[in-house]
Amino acid sequence: MNEKHNHKWVVLMTVCLAVFMGMLDITIVNVALPEIQKSFSSNFTTLQWVLNAYTLVYAMMLLPVSKLGDRFGKKLVFLIGLLIFITGSLASGMAQSDTLLNFFRGFQGIGGAAMMSLSLSIVTLSFPSKQRGLALGIWSSVTGLAVSIGPLIGGALVDAFGWRSIFLINIPVGIFAIIMGMLFIHDTEERRPEKLDIFGMIFSTVMVFSMILALIQKEMHSSYAWTNYHIVLLFALAIVTLVALIITELKVKEPMINLSIFNSSSFVGANIAAFTMGAGIYGGFTYLSILMQNYMGYSAFDTGLKLLWISAFTLILGPLTGLLSGRIGNRWLISIALLFGVTGVLTIQHLLDVPFRWHDLFAGFILLGISNALINPPISNTAMGSVKKSDVGMASGVLNVFRQVGISFGVVVLGISVTNGYNTKLNEGLSHLSQVPPVLSNHLSAAHGEIVSMLHKAGPFAGQQIFASHQARAYRKLPIFHQLHDVVFQAFQSGMTRACSVMAILLIIGALSSLVLIRRSVKNSDE
């Protein structure tokens, strides 16, 4: 046992390496999409599945792999997950069509889920309670860094070696992590010979799959109302399978999810905080990146550098956060962190103005960076410390599902907010442009309908690209064309203002829930 404890920091380094690689792969692909599109001549819908295939499979596999880790050993399933991930990376890097790439990205997601979910439980079980906060702080710092630095590393790799390199780079790193894991990771708890809850695994997988797919459908088809049958049927399936899952878990002797973990208000509070953090902060990163790239003119690489102002705080404050939680308590630390996020979002909302400038974002990024650094360690510590040691694996899976569903929910809801605000302000701005002197009216009346149609079809995320498009060139000689730039930018500002309000509301809900539900930090009950 002493030898195992002596290796705990090597174990932490190993799982952090795997988590960094897995989380990086979620964001690193964003900057490679234009090159992938050129390589395969893909349409936009197919291209979106390069991202969504990984996210969908990753989310739906978090709970099953957590249970498999409990049944067959966390070390074994973690290492198999690593092997699946690097195999999927190799296949993705060698894919000869967009369809094969999407399939292999989904296969990667299985490995990513095993790495992410089991790494948290491995760290929790490898460290005594006094050092666990520090260890989880380091683990969380690596997670936050990977999410933010992805565009930076991705941009450098794509520029230097092409898009296939973002997948192939995982192979040597993954092999090294597998060797280190085989040598130093040990299963610290005895495995009980129990039956696999097959129906529980099926119901949980279908539930998460249908829920995430419904959100993806809404994201990919902005014209769909929430009542569209594509979305309603998927949400209905999620509800039905959730009910079936609860009934099954209450009846079987050895359930996949011990529902008693939800009897802990602290565990529930931690999961609500994880959901709102994913929706309000990580979901918001998408639109901050769009703002910087499509409206401020930054390259993907420069955008990654700017996002480092958020992620860099995790390197400094992340490890210290674990120590702070022991002094002021997880409840207060989570609430304070979320309120830092609220302040950061509202600061951006207040300062953002046309023309967009970097100093409009800087102060808000600093506050979001502090929030991002403070939030993850106490959430993980609370969730893992609120359940029995034997339930740590599944608790990790549940926490990651809440976080991932939160991110997907945030991307969709914030996207709707941006789009609605954009369209409302765009129509208002275009109506003012219609009120021009009679000498110009003939020019405008002939083109006005086509311009409006073009701008609406392009949507809020086109930004400066719409003015450089072939279709837009036909209208450049119109006297009012130069004013359209300001109209579009003011419309996007209106959309971002609405999105910031939604982000702030989500984070406030998380902060209040944490204060009400989370109790004083406790050790695992059977530790």
Describe the structure.
This protein has 527 residues and is mostly helical. Among the domains are: 195 residues, Up-down Bundle (Growth Hormone, Chain: A); 59 residues; 75 residues, no CATH class. Helix content is 81%, strand content 0%. It is built from 20 helices and no strands. The longest helix is centred in the C-terminal third of the chain and has 42 residues. The relative contact order is 0.12.
What structural category arises from helix and sheet content?
A: mainly alpha
CATH architecture assignment of the domain at 1-195 = Up-down Bundle
**What fraction of residues sit in β-strands?**
under 5%
Average pLDDT, to the nearest integer? Answer: 82
CATH top level assignment of the domain at 1-195:
Mainly Alpha
Poorly predicted runs of 5 or more residues: 435-444
Q: Look up the CATH topology of the domain at 1-195.
A: Growth Hormone, Chain: A
Rg over C-alpha atoms, rounded to the nearest angstrom: 24 Å
The level of helicity is: over 70%
List keywords for this structure.
single chain, 527 residues, mainly alpha, Growth Hormone, Chain: A, 81% helix, globular, membrane, transmembrane, cell membrane, EmrB-like
Strand and helix layout:
Elements: H1 2-6, H2 8-28, H3 33-40, H4 44-72, H5 74-94, H6 98-126, H7 129-161, H8 165-168, H9 170-184, H10 198-220, H11 229-251, H12 265-295, H13 300-328, H14 330-351, H15 358-385, H16 392-433, H17 438-458, H18 465-468, H19 470-473, H20 481-517
Helix pairs in contact: 2-6, 2-7, 2-9, 4-5, 4-6, 4-10, 4-16, 5-6, 5-9, 6-7, 6-16, 7-13, 7-15, 10-11, 10-16, 12-15, 12-16, 12-20, 13-14, 13-15, 14-15, 14-20, 15-16, 16-20
